[in-house]
Specification:
Elements: E1 2-3, H1 16-22, E2 26-29, E3 34-39, E4 45-51, E5 58-64
Parallel strand pairs: 1-5
Antiparallel strand pairs: 2-3, 3-4, 4-5
Protein name: Toxin
């Protein structure tokens, strides 16, 4: 999975992105972007946006989870 520059805009460490995806607790599929909610390595919840593509999925968004995705 490639991590695009836009996924780094909020300072989430590259190593935390696959960790959040592998340990997801929620996911929302908008059709174009799969928004995955999962923990960083330190346990802080993240939202990670992935453009699914069988050949080459791309992470385009990563930041601390917002209230609209996590109660």
């Amino acid at each position: 999975m490639r991590i695009r520059a836009s996924a780094r805009n909020h300072g989430v460490a590259d190593a935390d992105i696959p960790h959040a995806i592998e340990h997801d607790v929620r996911a929302f599929d908008s059709g174009e972007v799969l928004m995955i909610i999962g923990p960083a390595r330190n346990g802080a919840m993240l939202e990670v946006g992935v453009v699914p593509d069988d050949a080459d999925p791309r992470t385009i968004h990563a930041m601390p989870v917002r209230r609209k995705f996590w109660p």
